[in-house]
Design goal:
The complex is a heterodimer. Chain A is of the alpha/beta class. Chain A has helices at about 45-50, 75-85, 100-110, 115-130, 145-155, 175-190, 200-205, and strands spanning about 1-15, 15-25, 25-30, 35, 60-65, 65-70, 85-90, 160-165, 195-200, 210-215, 220. Chain A has a six-stranded mixed β-sheet with strand order 7-8-9-4-10-11, with helices on both faces. The radius of gyration of chain A is 17 Å and the shape is globular. In chain B, the strands form three sheets. In chain B, strands 4, 5, 6, 7, 8, 9, 10 and 11 form an eight-stranded mixed β-sheet that branches. Chain B has a four-stranded antiparallel β-sheet with strand order 3-13-1-14. The chains are: A alpha/beta, B alpha+beta. The interface between A and B is medium-sized, with 29 and 24 residues.
Chain lengths: ~220, ~475
């Protein structure tokens, strides 16, 4: 479902070219749970940005469901992020002025879904992550674990092809982190959710079906 | 995003930054207020003048002036003389001095030529002069009445401003030769009825004047006091014309009609023979207004079937200047139009200055909300969505400020209109509102503030749209 071929990403920083990704070819199938593992500077964040359609490669190709991301114009890439990808961030990135359910609704709002329909869908997802009774709370009124659940519900609400989680347990204590991982694995198991977790934590990576280790911009 | 969602986002944004949004909108509001109040002031003047044009302007009454162009040339020649050695006095100079009232006439020949123009209904000479004072001629059993001032001199033939409210016009005399048999008659403004009627016990109106009834004046005789020209000149120095010790003469005239009350002046319209007699006395020139020189100006009435424009063109071909009373008032109106545009420019400037506030507010908001923008982009917001979001927010600030400013301008204007009525000048100008706010001005200034807001939003909105989502997500 996801294929990268000789993926290259170079940055120029202070006159120096940084080879963040240097010929990465990976494949991820539907329903898989995959960890992209590597220390900081290995290129895993860059790979995540490219897979998520937040950035475009310098060379090589990314294909998701037959569509080549590198060739998509900006609006199409935005639609790709909206429809095919569910982002989960380490620091949750919830909109502070919105309630939990409004945060979950956001991808559907951007898509132009009617208010009633998107509210129902958002409530369903919140129930799925066990936060139905917190729908009206703002992020500041929620615990870290609850915030991450809201962001998972937000990632799921649009029915994405895969969820891209960047250090999803990085800001949580061990117990809460475990709960989040359990939630991910349950969704993977029960809903056949394709899961790509980017982490430097080998323990978290070990819980995924498969690990892709990166080092210095290459698959190790 | 749906339109309602944009609206929701803006309401959120406003709520989040209440004070900042309020202050920015206030800036726009002040601009919008300045624009609305300035244009409202201009509109007040304009609508008053328009009402005067409607009431007194008549496209079929054409004033004809003798070669004014030559007068302009004379003035320019005089300007050239400034600072130069004196020139020899010519015969022409002496002639002009003798006919000291400008020396410009409508000749009988020209009057005949005017009459010959197709579409000209009548040609009447016009004589204007300074009358110093007017009083009601005392009846045999009455005591002597006091003198009153006259605003403008006499005009002959037709009261060209407004209509008659009572009586009839003075005997219409169209050429000098008819003058001998004509009566000495006049039409007055009804204000004189009030002046003459304010004499307490001696009130000749028997109290009618106090009730606003001026018709008693019709049929009474008035005395008109005219001073010799040298005294007219001194009038500009000594402002009390009723107290001249120098040579003057009193003329009698019967009031045959009352003119519509004119807000600007108290007028005396005398019949042509009377006017001529007074003018000859005033100028000390018995040749003034002879059969050859019929008047200072002429009043041409255009037949209802003819095109006034064509008639005027024909008059101009005779080397004369033609202007309808409507055009004369329109010229005044144009002066105000220029004034109006100046006022408008100041209002616009205030609004433009306020746009910098919007730019600043939005740039700050974007810096603060960089991360939120990054999240929205990650979740699928396109550049144009982000751009629209901020552009609409800018327009909304403009709209809110514009509406507030326009509303405030209306309140201030209405209050100003009430206060202005306490001042005699405004009260005397009947039907004059200092501030007038037509619907197009209210909607226009709000729309303009909105547009200006949207324009101010272009740069910040583009900046927000161009934010790199990865950088934005990293932003603290």
């Amino acid at each position: 479902m996801i294929r990268t071929q000789d993926l290259i990403k170079h940055y120029v920083l202070g006159g120096e070219t940084i080879r963040a990704l240097d010929g990465v070819s990976i494949g991820i199938e539907e329903g898989e749970s995959v960890a992209i593992l590597g220390p900081s500077g290995s290129g895993k964040s860059t790979l995540m940005h490219l897979l998520g359609g937040l950035d475009t490669p310098t060379g090589g190709t990314i294909e998701v469901d037959g569509a080549r991301l590198g060739e998509l114009p900006e609006p199409a890439l935005a639609r790709y992020r909206n429809e095919k990808v569910g982002f989960v961030f380490q620091s949750y990135n919830l909109q502070p002025h919105l309630t939990a359910i409004e945060n979950v609704e956001l991808p559907l709002k951007l898509r132009g879904t009617e208010r009633k329909e998107r509210r129902a869908l958002a409530l369903e997802r919140l129930a799925e992550v066990g936060l139905k009774d917190r729908a009206g709370h703002r992020p500041t009124e929620l615990s870290g674990g609850q915030r991450q659940r809201v962001s998972i519900a937000r990632a799921l609400v649009g029915g994405p092809h895969f969820v891209l989680a960047d250090e999803p347990t990085g800001n949580l204590d061990t117990k809460t982190g475990q709960e989040i991982v359990d939630l991910f694995l349950r969704l993977n198991r029960e809903k056949k959710l394709t899961l790509v977790v980017v982490t430097h934590n080998p323990e978290l990576a070990a819980l995924m079906g498969r690990s892709i280790a990166l080092r210095d911009g290459k698959v190790a | 995003m749906r339109a309602s969602d944009y609206l929701e986002e803006i309401v959120w944004s406003f709520r989040k930054q209440k004070l900042r949004t309020f202050l920015t909108a206030t800036g726009i509001g002040i601009g919008s207020f300045a624009l609305a109040i300035m244009v409202g002031l201009g509109e007040g003047l304009q609508s008053y003048i328009d009402s005067q044009i409607k009431a007194f302007g008549n496209p079929r009454v054409v004033m004809v002036f003798p070669e004014v162009a030559k007068q302009g040339q004379k003035f320019l020649d005089q300007l050239k003389q400034v600072g130069q050695p004196a020139e020899e006095l010519t015969e022409e100079d002496e002639r002009q001095k003798k006919n000291s009232r400008g020396g410009l006439w409508i000749s009988a020949e020209q009057a005949d030529a005017l009459r010959a123009i197709p579409g000209v209904e009548s040609v009447a000479p016009f004589v204007g002069l300074e009358i110093d004072g007017i009083r009601l001629a005392a009846a045999p059993n009455e005591a002597e009445m006091p003198w009153y001032r006259v605003d403008f001199g006499t005009l002959t033939s037709n009261p060209i401003m407004g209509a008659l409210t009572a009586g009839r016009l003075p005997a219409a005399v169209s050429s000098a030769s008819d003058a001998s048999g004509a009566e000495e008659e006049c039409v007055l403004s009804p204000q004189y009825a009030r002046s003459f009627g304010a004499l307490g016990d001696k009130d000749p109106s028997g109290g009618r004047a106090r009730k606003g009834d001026a018709s008693w004046l019709v049929g009474r005789e008035v005395e008109l006091r005219v001073a010799k020209l040298s005294n007219v000149a001194s009038k500009f120095v000594f402002r009390d014309p009723t107290k001249y010790k120098s040579e003057r003469r009193t003329f009698r005239a019967r009031v045959v009609g009352l003119a519509e009350e004119s807000p600007l002046s108290r007028v005396v319209f005398a019949s042509l023979p009377l006017g001529r007699e007074m003018a000859r006395y005033q100028s000390q020139n018995p040749e003034l207004l002879s059969e050859e020189k019929i008047g200072f100006q002429a009043i041409v009435r255009v037949a209802a079937t003819a095109d006034p424009k064509k008639v005027k063109d024909e008059i101009r071909k005779l080397g004369l200047v033609a202007q309808s009373t409507e055009e004369q008032l329109q010229q005044v109106s144009q002066v105000f139009l220029v004034l109006d545009s100046f006022l408008t420019v100041f209002g616009l400037l205030a609004l433009v200055v306020a746009t910098f506030g919007i730019v600043n507010t939005l740039l700050m908001a974007i810096t603060e909300r960089t991360r939120e923008i990054g999240v929205m982009k990650a979740l699928g917001a396109t550049r144009s969505t982000v751009r629209r979001l901020f552009a609409v927010e800018a327009a909304a600030i403009g709209l809110v400020g514009g509406a507030g400013g326009a509303l405030f301008a209306i309140l201030v204007g209405l209050a100003g209109n009430v206060i202005a009525q306490r001042f005699p000048v405004a009260a005397a100008l009947k039907g004059y509102s200092v501030f007038v706010f037509p619907w197009w001005l209210v909607l226009g200034s709000i729309a303009f503030a909105t547009l200006v807001g949207a324009l101010a939003g272009i740069y910040p909105a583009n900046r927000a749209a161009r934010l790199d989502p990865i950088d934005a997500l990293r932003h603290e």
